[in-house]
Specification:
With 1981 residues, the protein is an alpha+beta fold. Helix content is 44%, strand content 13%. A hairpin with a 7-residue loop joins strand 27 and strand 28.
């Protein structure tokens, strides 16, 4: 039976369990489980990681651990009872584990490895803790290491800062918010800044001396030297080196390593140096022979110096190589280091070119104990300590030191009868009182052990040697008395076996008779002469002699007069001995009572270090004197005591305070002293007010803490001794003393008077007295003293008085004291404290201090809270709330809004104080209960006060939520803050409901409330979805999801609003939308009804929700721009689609409403916008390719323009797109993009506001700037023709303003563009069709096909590779067939790419002879709407003999939504047309193309345009040779056979046409051969002859004897070219082997040349075709005799075969007879910006009556393109869209001007003339619905391309503007498209145009098709010219080819046309309604 477990609650899995039994729970080793029940060796429970899955498992697999159970029962939680550090370690390591693997994935190798080491280290330390064998101290160390590593890892991984106390985590609920803040702050500061260490140490490690001339042992001495004061700062460190220059004892590291300890911060400066002296031990002269003498002397070798400051900057681990210098003369040796420092170069030189001392130098910081821990290796290995000369900056009690330093300075010696000076060596001995030499008490320096004697340097032949050698004599204190030092002088001979001869000695005793030691300083010692054999062992003989010249008796002239002297400098550093006689006199006061007064007076002059050495003895002396004669010496003793107490305040001696404390506790015995001390203290206090000089009194008050300690201790000793006698008397004395103090504190002082300073001094020390008073008085008594003392302070103090700050400090110390912790004293002191705080905070003074006080107060309130809330605590909270809550809120507001101070220190201080006040506010609000809130709200006397309070607190809460409020990793603090905020808001929302609804409604308070709620929900620290599961679980367990709580609160408050909801629409839409973006289902469910409600109320109010829609869209876009591409935003946006899309609640609610249609449409719009914004956000991510970004921006831009009509957004995205293009160097596209903005502006003087990067300027100036920028970009993109048009428009503007300077520049620029067209090479781009299939593509690409303009030099393979790089997950499809539905719906990405051929629109230019290639190239590849792709196939049975019989071509024509190039490099395919070209039509096309190519080459050759005749030769050879081998014969066979003619009667005309073309070809060939003969070079004559012979064969094979008449006329003057439009198929790029050389034409060849010879045997072509089509037939199976149309020229200008175009309503197109002038004016009209009030979005519908009978316009005399059509059938142009009135008046004008005004050629842009009428009808069922169009027509000269011969029917849709506008499909309006319907011949409208005879054929109707397209895509160069309010400026004229052959005339002056234009403008049909003007925001842009 299963029994619930009692003890077994928590366990760890020891072995994995598969859980194969019924209900078994699979377990992994290491899992932790919670156990619910047990039964016979089995447990039932769950894994803590996944509490939802419960099951059973064997109990033997589980190690049960002790655990603490919370909430026993069904929802119990189990917390293991183990060390909190272990728990934290375990959970942290688990969290790190997951992140650690991610580091590897992200390739952050460095952190990955470091974290791995740290994790292993933590696991090792964890084991040590778990084993439990550690000592208490070691455990502490281990935990410290663990927590340090945990913190390091958390910081590196960006995890939260963990608040800790004593290594264990702190539960934020267990401590007050102020304490939590302090802990976080402390840990944050610790992490941020390490306090600079006050003590520093220099580590020196001697490596070696490198020198060429060694061979002797060396001694190296290091010391630290102060260059400013020219004195050593430290003793010397001494290293012996062997003859190789290496340390002598390498195994003893302490002999070669040292630590120069206790350097102060002041010692780390530039003029403090490490000085190294090197002494050699060997012969007297460095170069002497080795065997001359065996005696070794210490001789100078060299010196090195390095500045300590260099070590601060150098890398600590570097070894330093110090240069070693030698002095030029030995007598300078003593100051060589000074000379090196001063750079006195003449006195020293390098001791050898390569001599150097290698040492490691490193500065270490911190106290020595810290270093022992950090650099353990250093100390365990061994390092000698080199001390400072003298005490360190801080003297520690208990430090034992007794070192005497003697420096051998110099000597003066007589020659001693020698002719040369002596070589003097000194030997130093220390002898004790008995005359015995003290062993090992003479040390040359640290590093080497001390010796019995010391030998000085020997300076060669010098009677006045200066050694400057320092030795250290570490003599024990007890041996000091009676000891002396003896110096023996010897002459070292270099001859006589090098013996040393004694010639004198000196000595100095170490202590004087009175106990004082040898005073510090220089002593001139007497040299006593002696012989070599003098016995100095009996020192008593010479100790009686005088030793120093300074203390010789005046009568001893003999010794005084001797010249010989020896100088030493002595310095004692001792903690036990003194050189001060006054100190000794005081300590021996009993011996000389008469000197007491004198000694007490001199105490103040004694050095502090002397006093602290004998602190206890001195204090005993003082109290001894006081006890014995208090009357006489009381005041003096008191002053001395004050002096000593204040001495200990000095930082150097502060560590002696504990010594004094110990003295007071343990050694002080003055039981009667308290009376005298109180008396003297009161005496001083009473004199404060009257005293002139306050300095001494201030010193007394400074010492008051210790004076009270002595008073209290003395009283306690007295009580103990007497059983508590005189208690009352003592109390009275203390009360009287406090009365005196209160009196002096109550003095009011103006400004900074001496008394005020004294008051401040007292207040600073006052809090230190509390603890002492508590030893005798009760808590209440002491609290009473303090309250009265503080209350006695004057209240009306000047704000600037220093007393105010001190008063606050005093209160702060009071609040932090032990006394205040006691609740009894707290209730007494709290009112005083609150009163002071309130005044200070109200006046915003000393806020740092106020924060500190508040923090301390509130952290105490918390401590009491764990017990049931005591009434006292509740009252305390009540008091604080009443006094401080409102002030505290105001203070936080003030500080937050204050500008940040400049200095970093100040800024830190302000930041701290904000944080502390916030913590105080949180702590206070946390303590408040219902009762407190009720009392608070009732306390407000008026509504206005309550309103202000609510506004304040809501604003403060908003400040608290700011991300910068706390550092990034303070998640714990943020959660506590949020918890407090939500609790408080719940309390306050009641007040809001009760007081501010109905009539009393206050918008501001409610708005503030909602705003706070929204930012509360949206703050990052509450977005649980972004946290790790463990963190999320912790937060949910502790606080729940606070967002949902706040959401419910918003909902309930919203419901309470009633009709006041309207005040918040649409203002709250944006904020609430942000809330719904939070991916929390419960929150959404709460928020969606609010949205529905808003829509409902808005509908009621205004009948629509335009406002809601506008606000939604703006908010969405702004969220995008704020999102900055971060991943969470992507998720947030994803989450809104469910909200507006299929999300049930909102849609269902809307569907039940009366306004459901508009509601659903709003949701659809927003959803579509969302999809685009999502794509935009994704594409804008870093690292995305430009192509994607551009495509996405275009999609969004179009959406804003067409669907949302948001002009400002539209313009913003225009500029974003422009920047993208510039970055990608798509200059042409950039120009088209900027044109979109340009054409929204007009040439007016209206002022525009500053917008984006544009300054404030007039509309004219901005448009001018845009024009210039666009021209510059067109120039960079080599699109000069477009630039020319803009140049002209600008030039007209300049001319109209008579700005001839700029006009001239503009004309020059225009001319330069013409030059560039003629002189510069333009690359011809390739075009590729790309299909994006599958659901994984972004929305703007998904299941769509595009045509893309390739980059320069980019071929299919490169393009394909680029696309696959842009979409790395895409699969390239290997066929060209349309994919099926499975591919469309697949969850993948499929790319289908193939090359397509552009179908140029401007056939007239391309067909004209004599137009240079440079010009033609522009028309071939610009303004292309349609592209073609051909696929050959066989229908029916294939004739192996002649496959042309069955060779059909499947021709796909793609029509784009916009022409290329445009605002993007790619545009979507709008329409696909599939036609099949019959074998016969195919043959016609091939021959047509070849004929055209031949004509062109011949013309070029004739006009000498060709440098070389090869292209013509190759072409002729190709045609003639192929023909001989059966080229044309194959066509004859196939189509002229009787069978074919019988079976295909309908093809009669076509067969005739084919025959004509064959004859034509033969004729052209004949003419070509004639030309060829003229120009053929000599070496190619044989080839020419062969061609002529073959041509005759060919003629005879065709059966041609004589050419028919129609062929003979003018063989090469082709007016019209062939009458068909170009039908090109895919260029050869697809074919891997399609001859590349042929495909890219030479610059001389006519660009329309077929890529291959039209030879019927061109197997190359068939190879290519098979490659293109992907078919597997061999080349001979596919037509091996005739090239497929797919190989025909890219720009062949023949029209399609009749079955493609037969019924197309032919608009006039590019007829060569068109007047030049009209071409120009058409162009410029196209460029002209459209009339301002009419936007592209709301065009004006055109009256049907205005349509012109188009069939009357046209030229019936042109050659027919289709033999099957009669002339009337063919000439059926689409109806005109002009206003008839305009046309009537315009016609004469046109006819007059034809031929008169001719301009240079400018690229014309044909209109869209539509495809076959049948197609158009099917597309557009509403023929009467016309495109919105204007009525006012400017002088509008039709484009040459519109008046086109009927023979040139084209399929290509184009904008009816000259250039593709760049406003892509997104600028289409939703007006239904008008189709170009034909009017029947008889259906003439009432007004007809003049008959064709009177109207020159160059005037065309503006066909209807352009209008249809205009509908969709208004071009940037609008067809309409706007009325200029200032002065109408017509645009320059366009170019066309005139019918007459006169030379072109000059272009007209602008004013000639202007009058006409105005006249025309006035003739607009008044009946046509004016268009509704678009509400424009551009005026402000």
């Amino acid at each position: 039976m299963w029994i619930p477990t009692e003890k077994e609650k928590y366990g760890v899995v020891l072995a994995s369990f598969r859980g194969t039994v019924q209900h078994g729970l699979p377990l992994e080793i290491g899992d932790t489980v919670q156990i619910l029940e047990k039964c016979e060796g089995w447990f039932r429970g769950f894994i803590l990681k996944n509490p939802n899955v419960k099951g059973i498992f064997p109990s033997s697999y589980i190690h049960v651990k002790n655990a603490h159970v919370k909430n026993k029962g069904q929802f119990e939680t189990v917390i293991p009872v183990e060390d909190s550090v272990i728990t934290e370690m375990t959970s942290t390591l688990r969290e790190w584990g997951a992140m650690w693997k991610q580091l590897y994935v992200k390739n952050e190798g460095d952190l990955f490895h470091r974290l791995w080491h740290v994790m292993n280290e933590i696991l090792d330390l964890r084991r040590q803790v778990l084993v439990g064998h550690l000592t208490h101290d070691r455990m502490k160390d281990v935990k410290q290491h663990i927590t340090a590593r945990l913190d390091w890892g958390n910081e590196q991984l960006g995890l939260d800062l963990v608040p800790r106390r004593e290594f264990s985590m702190v539960d934020p609920d267990e401590i007050s918010a102020t304490e939590l803040y302090k802990l976080m702050e402390h840990r944050h500061r610790k992490k941020e800044t390490n306090a600079p260490a006050s003590t520093h140490h220099l580590f020196v490690h001697v490596k070696s001396l490198m020198s060429a001339n060694l061979g002797e042992e060396l001694e190296v001495f290091f010391h630290i030297y102060d260059g400013r004061e020219n004195r050593p700062l430290s003793e010397r460190f001494f290293v012996r080196l062997n003859k190789s220059g290496l340390p002598k004892s390498p195994e003893k590291t302490e002999r070669q390593c040292t630590l120069f300890v206790d350097l102060g911060s002041s010692d780390l400066r530039k003029d403090v140096y490490i000085v190294v002296h090197i002494i050699r031990i060997g012969r007297m002269g460095a170069g002497e022979k080795k065997n001359l003498c065996s005696v070794q002397y210490r001789r100078p070798f060299g010196c090195a110096v390095v500045s300590i400051a260099d070590l601060l900057t150098a890398d600590s681990k570097d070894d330093h190589l110090l240069k070693v210098y030698a002095c030029n003369t030995e007598s300078e040796w003593y100051q060589i280091h000074e000379n090196i420092i001063k750079k006195a170069n003449s006195r020293y030189n390098l001791s050898g070119s390569n001599t150097g001392l290698a040492v490691a130098l490193q500065l270490l910081h911190g106290d020595i104990e810290q270093l022992r821990r950090e650099y353990m290796v250093l100390f365990t290995r061994g390092v000698s300590i080199t001390r400072k000369l003298g005490f360190s900056d801080v003297i520690m009690p208990g430090e034992m030191r007794n070192d005497l330093y003697i420096t051998l300075e110099k000597g003066e010696f007589e020659k001693g009868g020698k002719s040369v000076a002596r070589n003097v060596e000194i030997t130093v001995y220390v002898l004790d009182i008995d005359g015995q030499i003290l062993k090992s008490h003479v040390a040359a320096g640290s590093g080497e052990p001390g010796g019995d004697e010391y030998h000085s340097l020997v300076l060669y032949h010098n009677n006045s040697p200066r050694w400057a050698e320092q030795i250290k004599l570490p003599i024990p204190v007890d041996m000091f008395r009676g000891s002396h030092v003896r110096f023996e002088f010897r002459h070292c001979s270099t001859k006589d076996k090098g013996e040393r001869k004694l010639f004198g000695y000196s000595f100095v005793p170490l202590m004087q008779e009175d106990g004082r030691t040898l005073p510090d300083g220089t002593h001139e010692l007497i040299i006593h002469k002696c012989e070599e054999n003098t016995n100095l062992a009996d020192c008593l003989r010479y100790l009686k002699l005088p030793f120093s010249k300074s203390n010789l008796p005046s009568n001893n002239q003999t010794l005084k007069g001797t010249k010989e002297s020896f100088w030493i400098t002595s310095f004692l550093c001792s903690t036990k001995l003194t050189q001060n006689g006054d100190m000794l006199d005081l300590l021996k006061w009993r011996a000389h009572p008469e000197r007491i007064n004198d000694s007490l007076s001199k105490l103040k002059e004694i050095d502090g270090s002397e006093i602290v050495k004998f602190l206890q003895d001195t204090l005993d002396t003082l109290f001894g004197i006081l006890d014995e004669s208090s009357q006489r010496y009381g005041l003096k003793v008191f002053d001395s005591l004050v002096h000593i107490i204040n001495l200990l305040q000095d930082s150097k001696f502060q560590h002696f305070k504990p010594v004094m404390d110990t003295y007071i506790e343990s050694h002080f015995a003055g039981a009667l002293s308290y009376r005298d001390l109180i008396k003297v203290l009161k005496w001083y206090v009473d004199r404060i007010v009257d005293a002139e000089h306050q300095d001494h009194i201030q010193q007394v008050l400074k010492a008051s803490e210790y004076i009270f300690k002595y008073i209290i201790q003395s009283r306690r000793l007295f009580s103990l001794a007497t059983g508590g006698q005189n208690e009352e008397e003592f109390r009275v004395c203390i009360h009287e003393l406090f009365m005196s103090i209160r009196f002096f504190l109550s003095q009011e002082n103006k400004g900074i008077s001496p008394v005020a300073q004294t008051q401040a001094v007292f207040l600073r020390t006052f809090p230190a007295i509390y603890g002492e008073l508590l030893k005798i008085f009760t808590v209440r008594e002491v609290a009473g003293f303090i309250r009265e003392t503080l209350a006695s302070l004057p209240t009306a103090v000047h704000p600037d008085s220093p007393l105010e700050a001190v008063k606050l400090q005093c209160i702060a110390k009071t609040v932090e004291s032990q006394l205040y912790i006691n609740p009894e004293s707290r209730c007494i002191l709290l009112p005083v404290v609150l009163r002071v705080l309130q005044t200070h905070m109200q006046e915003q003074r000393d806020l740092v201090m106020c924060a500190r006080i508040l923090t301390s107060m509130l952290s105490l309130v918390k401590k009491e809270e764990n017990s049931p809330v005591e009434p006292a605590v509740s009252e305390e909270v009540e008091l604080i709330v009443e006094s401080l809550l409102v002030v505290l809120l105001r203070t936080i507001l003030e500080i937050s809004n204050r500008p940040q101070p400049a200095g970093p220190a100040m800024r830190l201080q302000f930041q701290d104080v904000t944080g502390e006040f916030v913590a105080c506010l949180l702590a206070l609000l946390r303590q408040m209960s219902d009762r407190h809130y009720q009392q608070l709200l009732q306390a407000f006397s008026s509504k206005d006060d309550l309103r202000d309070f609510l506004l304040h607190i809501f604003t403060v809460f908003r400040i608290l939520i700011r991300p910068e409020m706390f550092p990034k990793d303070w998640a714990v603090m943020r959660l506590v803050t949020n918890n407090v905020i939500i609790t408080t808001v719940l309390y306050l929302s009641d007040a809001l409901r009760k007081n501010f609804l109905g009539d009393k409604f206050d918008y501001k308070v409610w708005d503030s409330y909602f705003y706070l709620s929204v930012i509360f929900i949206n703050q990052p620290c509450l977005q649980l979805e972004s946290f790790s599961p463990s963190k999320r679980k912790k937060i949910l367990e502790k606080y729940g999801d606070m967002r949902v709580m706040m959401g419910c609160e918003i909902f309930s408050m919203w419901q309470n609003l009633g009709e006041h909801k309207l005040n918040f629409i649409p203002a709250m839409i944006g904020p609430f939308l942000e809330v719904t973006l939070v991916p929390q289902p419960d929150l959404r469910n709460v928020m969606i009804p609010i949205f529905h409600d808003m829509m409902d109320w808005e509908q009621r109010r205004s009948g629509n929700f335009k406002q809601v829609e506008a606000k939604l869209i703006d908010k969405l876009d702004s969220l995008m721009s704020d999102g900055k591409g971060d991943e969470t935003y992507r998720e947030l946006f994803n989450s809104i689609i469910p909200l507006f899309g299929p999300y049930p609640s909102l849609l269902k609610k809307i569907e039940r409403e009366t306004w459901r249609e508009s509601g659903i449409s709003l949701i659809a719009t927003v959803t579509r916008l969302m999809e685009r914004l999502l794509d935009y956000r994704d594409c804008m991510k870093l690292g995305e390719v430009d192509g994607k970004k551009i495509g996405c921006t275009v999609s969004l831009l179009n959406f804003y323009k067409t669907e949302l009509n948001k002009e400002e957004m539209y313009i913003r995205y225009i500029h974003k797109l422009y920047d993208l293009h510039l970055k990608a160097q798509n200059y042409t596209e950039a120009s088209y993009t900027l044109l979109l903005y340009d054409e929204l502006l007009e040439w007016s003087d209206r002022p525009l506001r500053e917008f984006l990067n544009y300054p404030m300027q007039s509309e004219w100036q901005r448009k001018e700037y845009l024009h210039l920028t666009i021209i510059q970009n067109f120039d960079r993109g080599k699109c000069w023709e477009n630039g020319i048009i803009l140049c002209r428009e600008l030039a007209d503007q300049y001319e109209s303003y008579y700005d001839y300077r700029n006009l001239s520049k503009m004309r020059m620029m225009e001319a330069s563009l013409y030059d560039k067209i003629m002189d510069q090479q333009r690359l011809e781009p390739e075009f590729f069709r790309v299909g994006f299939y599958g659901k994984k593509f972004p929305f703007f690409l998904r299941n769509k096909e595009f045509v893309c303009r390739g980059h320069d030099y980019e071929r299919l393979e490169a393009f394909q590779q680029r696309m696959l790089n842009e979409f790395p997950h895409a699969i390239a499809m290997q066929h060209v067939n349309q994919p099926d539905q499975t591919i469309y719906q697949a969850d993948a990405q499929y790319l289908q790419i193939y090359a397509v051929t552009p179908i140029p629109e401007s056939q007239d230019v391309l067909q004209r002879d004599g137009v240079p290639d440079n010009i033609k190239s522009f028309y071939k590849f610009n303004h292309i709407w349609r592209f073609r792709y051909d696929r050959p196939f066989h229908k029916g049975t294939k004739d192996k003999e002649n496959e042309f019989k069955s060779l059909w071509v499947e021709r796909t024509t793609l029509t784009l939504v916009q022409s290329l190039p445009g605002i993007s490099r790619w545009f979507e395919v709008e329409k696909r047309e599939l036609v099949e070209v019959s074998p016969l039509e195919n043959a016609i096309e091939v021959i047509e193309n070849k004929n055209l190519q031949l004509r062109t080459l011949i013309t070029q050759c004739q006009s000498r345009q060709m440098q070389n005749i090869n292209p013509l030769t190759m072409c002729l050879n190709g045609v003639i040779d192929a023909a001989v081998n059966g080229g044309l014969a194959r066509y004859q066979e196939a189509f002229f056979a009787k069978d074919y003619i019988m079976n295909h009667p309908e093809d009669g005309d076509k067969i005739g046409r084919l025959r004509e073309l064959m004859f034509e070809q033969a004729h052209i060939l004949e003419y070509g051969l004639t030309v060829h003969e003229k120009f053929v070079p000599q070496d190619m004559r044989p080839l020419h002859k062969k061609l002529v012979d073959q041509f005759h064969l060919m003629k005879s094979s065709l059966g041609i004897q004589e050419f028919p008449a129609y062929v003979r006329a003018s063989p090469v003057h082709f007016t019209n070219g062939s009458p068909r439009t170009c039908r090109n198929s895919v260029p050869s790029i697809i074919s891997p082997d399609g001859g590349r050389g042929v495909a890219r034409r030479s610059s001389h060849s006519y660009p329309a040349v077929n890529r291959y010879s039209s030879s019927s045997l061109s197997s190359q072509a068939s190879n290519e075709v098979s490659n293109i089509t992907g078919q597997s037939e061999s080349s001979d199976e596919v037509f091996n005799m005739q090239p497929s149309p797919s190989t025909s020229s890219l720009s062949s200008n023949h029209s399609a075969s009749p079955n493609v175009t037969s019924s197309a309503p032919s608009s006039a197109r590019g007829s060569p007879q068109m007047a030049e002038k009209h071409k120009h004016s058409r162009e410029n009209t196209c460029l002209s910006p459209r009339e301002r009030p009419v936007s592209a979005i709301f065009p004006n519908p055109l009256d049907p009556a205005q349509r012109a009978p188009a069939h009357q316009i046209g030229d019936t005399t042109l050659p027919r393109s289709d033999p099957n059509l009669s002339a009337p059938d063919k000439v059926r142009p689409t109806p005109s869209s002009w206003s008839l009135d305009s046309v009537k008046e315009g016609a004469p004008y046109f006819s007059d001007s034809v031929g008169k005004f001719l301009g240079p050629p400018v690229p014309p842009r044909p209109p869209y003339s539509g495809s076959a009428a049948k197609n158009m009808r099917s597309q557009s069922p509403a023929p009467t619905s016309r495109s919105p169009q204007k009525t006012t027509v400017p002088p509008f000269t039709p484009s040459p391309t519109e008046c086109q011969s009927t023979s040139l029917v084209s399929n290509s849709p184009v904008l009816s503007g000259s250039y593709s506008s760049g406003i892509s499909s997104l600028s289409r309006c939703s007006v239904s498209e008008a189709s170009g319907t034909e009017l029947p011949a008889g259906d003439h409208p009432p007004h007809t145009l003049p008959p064709p005879a009177t109207l020159p054929n160059s005037i065309s109707s503006s066909s209807d098709e352009p209008i249809r397209r205009e509908n969709k895509t208004p071009p940037p160069y609008s067809v309409y010219e706007r009325n200029n309010p200032r002065r109408p400026v017509p645009l320059p004229h366009s170019l066309s080819i005139p019918p007459q052959t006169d030379p072109p005339a000059l272009p007209p002056k602008p004013h000639q046309l202007r009058t006409g234009s105005m006249k025309l403008d006035g003739t607009a049909d008044p009946r046509v309604p004016r268009p509704r003007p678009l509400p424009r925001k551009v005026s402000q842009l």
